[in-house]
């Protein structure tokens, strides 16, 4: 549902225990939404929800393995029983394994596509009716990996690129009641960078036109915009949130 004054939406966010997902959860809650903080890390999801409630917001931390159809059905039963049908879904969960194609196992490949790409299908399959009834919105989190190539990321790139095409398709299939858009973050300061060298972080910053890494909140604010009345005529859009990285690198 496009949010109106005094109305509370339920916003479901996957991969919401850390990074962009957690920042999005806090931002939606600050604006008065009821947030379902989901993650495979149950304890971390609960911590984010606790922090939101401590700040005066409304949220629950819920376990969700986005690669498991049964987990989606269990969450659906729980939310419907609690009269919390999602009006907005933010698909942020991902899984990443490095290595060239011949170095990745079938399980590596399949899990990356299941968590990052097929989870969006599962989200719409599970909650298409609540999104439609609410005239709601879905925002998918892709990556500049969907339009640029770095070494040894075949499944991740395929999944993130597929999200762009899937977003366009869903925006057609569920129009006019549900808007579906996708954001493409660049190098964002999340825990993924904890495993990278300072040299790699500095290089990523230099590759952006703005000469720095982005923050999770800077992506979250765009996600929140796409789910708002301010974007009521925006659907099927792919919005770069990359500090100009794709401009600098020539995508």
Structure description:
The chain is built from 8 helices and 7 strands. Helix 1 runs parallel beside helix 2 and helix 1 packs across helix 7 (216-226). Helix 2 links the parallel strand 2 and strand 3. It is 45% helix and 14% strand. By secondary structure, it is an alpha/beta fold. The chain is globular. It has one domain: 3-Layer(aba) Sandwich (Rossmann fold). It has a 7-stranded parallel sheet, sandwiched between helices.
The helix-strand sequence is EHEHEHEHEHEHHEH
Helix content: 40-55%
Number of strands: 7
Structural class: alpha/beta
The residue ranges in which pLDDT falls below 50 over 5 or more consecutive positions are none
Distance separating the two termini = 34 Å
The CATH class is identified as Alpha Beta
Provide the gyration radius in Å: 17 Å
CATH superfamily: NAD(P)-binding Rossmann-like Domain
The CATH architecture can be given as: 3-Layer(aba) Sandwich
Protein name: SDR family oxidoreductase
Family: Belongs to the short-chain dehydrogenases/reductases (SDR) family.
Organism: Rhodoglobus aureus
Pfam families: adh_short_C2
Key structural traits:
alpha/beta; about 250 residues; globular; 8 helices; Rossmann fold
Topology overview:
Blueprint: E1 10-13, H1 19-30, E2 34-39, H2 42-54, E3 58-63, H3 69-81, E4 88-91, H4 106-134, E5 137-141, H5 154-173, E6 179-185, H6 198-207, H7 216-226, E7 238-241, H8 245-249
Parallel strand pairs: 1-2, 1-4, 2-3, 4-5, 5-6, 6-7
Helix pairs in contact: 1-2, 1-7, 3-4, 4-5
């Amino acid at each position: 549902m496009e949010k109106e004054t005094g109305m509370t939406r339920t916003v479901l966010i996957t991969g919401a225990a850390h990074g962009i997902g957690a920042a999005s959860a806090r931002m939606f809650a600050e604006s008065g939404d009821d947030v379902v903080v989901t993650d495979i890390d149950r304890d971390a999801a609960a911590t984010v929800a606790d922090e939101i409630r401590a700040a005066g917001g409304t949220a629950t931390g819920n376990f969700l393995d986005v690669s498991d159809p049964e987990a989606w059905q269990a969450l659906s039963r729980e939310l419907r029983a609690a009269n919390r049908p999602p009006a907005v879904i933010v698909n942020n969960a991902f899984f990443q394994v490095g290595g060239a194609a011949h170095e990745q196992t079938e399980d590596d490949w399949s899990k990356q596509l299941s968590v990052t790409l097929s989870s969006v299908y599962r989200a719409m399959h599970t909650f298409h009716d609540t999104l439609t009834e609410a005239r709601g919105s879905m925002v998918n989190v892709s990556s500049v990996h969907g339009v640029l190539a770095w070494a040894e990321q075949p499944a991740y790139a395929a999944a993130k690129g597929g999200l762009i095409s899937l977003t366009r398709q869903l925006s057609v299939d569920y129009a006019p009641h549900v808007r579906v858009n996708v954001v493409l973050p660049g190098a964002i300061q999340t825990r993924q960078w904890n495993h990278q060298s300072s040299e790699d972080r500095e290089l990523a910053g230099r590759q952006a036109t703005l000469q720095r890494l982005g923050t999770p909140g800077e992506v979250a604010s765009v996600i929140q915009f796409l789910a708002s009345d301010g974007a009521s005529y925006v659907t099927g859009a792919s919005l770069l949130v990359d500090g100009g990285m794709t401009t600098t690198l020539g995508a």
